[in-house]
Amino acid sequence: MLLRSVPRPLSALLVCLTALLLAGCSSTDTAGNATGKTSGDTDTATASAPAWADGMDTVREAGLPAEARRTLALIDAGGPFPYAKDGTVFGNFERELPRQERGYYHEYTVRTPGERDRGARRIVTGRDGEVYYTDDHYNSFRAVLR
């Protein structure tokens, strides 16, 4: 047996790591069905999602690209922002987000590696703390769960 040739502390560590890996490979939804999703995956709104995210696809902050997490940190800090349009009013002309009065939403650029311009990725924030992410230039949004 392979574990007999490995020192006991190392074999215990290997067993623990294997168990952690297997536990992270699958999860269950609220009905107890295996989903195969991890905490960073996109999923539909669940009971833990805020009311403003009801019916939307969601993504946990940890599941966002690193550039989006950096943009969120800049938003939380109040800037400075790398793009002149960061923090400007988002008009929601596509009507993908809940309807609100003009000035309710603001947009921020999420840097896209390899792009020379602003790219298609954005974070849009709402006045009441809502955070949305799009990676297809406003064609679709996911509510960001923080």
TrEMBL record:
Its protein name is Ribonuclease N
Q: Lineage in the entry?
A: Bacteria, Bacillati, Actinomycetota, Actinomycetes, Kitasatosporales
**SUPFAM superfamilies attached here?**
Microbial ribonucleases
- Entry keyword annotation includes Disulfide bond: no
Q: Where is this region: Disordered?
A: 31-50
Query: What UniProt keywords are attached to this protein's entry?
Result: Hydrolase, Nuclease, Signal
InterPro entries (UniProt xref): N1-like (IPR000026), Ribonuclease/ribotoxin (IPR016191)
Q: Name one Pfam family in it.
A: Ribonuclease
What residue stretch is flagged as signal peptide? 1-31
Task: Tell whether Glycoprotein is among the UniProt keywords.
Answer: no
